[in-house]
Amino acid sequence: MSLPSTPKILVIRRDNIGDLVCTTPLIHALRQRFPKGWIGALVNSYNAPVLAGNPDLDEVFVYTKAKHRGADESLPGILWRRLQMMRRLRQMQLDDVIIATTSPQPRTVKLAQWLKPKRIIGFGDAEGLDIVLPLERQDCHEVEDVFRVAAIYGIKGPPPACRVFAPAAVRPAPARDVPPDTLTIGIHISARKPSQRWPADRFAETIRAIAAQGSVRFLLLWSPGAEENPLHPGDDAKAKEVMAKVPGGTQRAGAGATVIPRPTATLAELIGALAECDALICADGGAMHLGAGLGLPIVCLFGNSGAARWRPGDVPYRLLQKPSLEVLDITVGEVIAAFNALRGDIRGPSA
User: Fold this and answer.
1) Which CATH architecture best describes the domain 172-345?
2) Which of 36, 45, 105, 177 counts the highest number of beta carbons within 10 A?
3) Which tens digits make up the pLDDT trace of 82-111?
4) Is a pLDDT exceeding 90 seen at residue 208?
5) CATH architecture, domain 8-153
């Protein structure tokens, strides 16, 4: 089937933050291929801020999973809004629906069938797909795996970089008391997986060691809340411990260095905070992929996750992973050495 010159293409990616970041190169390539076509995305309320302000998309359709609904949202209410959204998509007479998750998604295929597009494109041998992409081996990077869809549209060459945009509304103003050439280093201390969690005292020691090298500003980033919260565990206590072990608390961390605590309650706030940074030190996870989408050089600590598939995208990085697959076994000295090796790639605020 031949596509019109201005096709209507919907990209579905309903999983995690990093997965959606790794789909933005495909979205950008589709826009370059079809500058006057209609390109939309169907995502969930958890990962939707990844696409905020993305100029490659005509529209982003967002639904709320039952487990993510707010205190003021009823289950019937979110289901009704979802039905209304799906009806609108069906009425658009889509040409293609791309299920961009790189594993079989039978439930999403059924959803796509209900939309009545001309073609459904997806990964794995799921009934209902019109174009099937075979499953790739595990050592393929997620960006490259997703980007195999591009060949269907005659798009050649390597994937472009991941793209994340910080809306001006959530981008804090530069600090007035910081010299314009001062580097801002993001230190993100939260991690969902236990194997990815690095202790507070090592983050504090890392801050002190980098501060001793010269003028620098740190943003200490974490997911707020109590660690015991079963729905949304937070790292308030861990952040407090880090700050307590940095000399001078929120004011000074060493010669010419400042540490600013910045809890990020929403994904938009995290994107805005990362946009302030010139580089990032963090564990593998959503914050790492957002940093890569913003173009930050990254020192990343990997525990029990596949580094070949989930390493940062097209940015300078240094990846640390131990045979034990435990971040706990990574030393402060190794993180400092990785940061110093990366320093030549950090452009700085005046670049």
Assistant:
1) 3-Layer(aba) Sandwich (3.40)
2) 105
3) 888 899 999 999 999 999 999 999 999 999
4) yes
5) 3-Layer(aba) Sandwich (3.40)
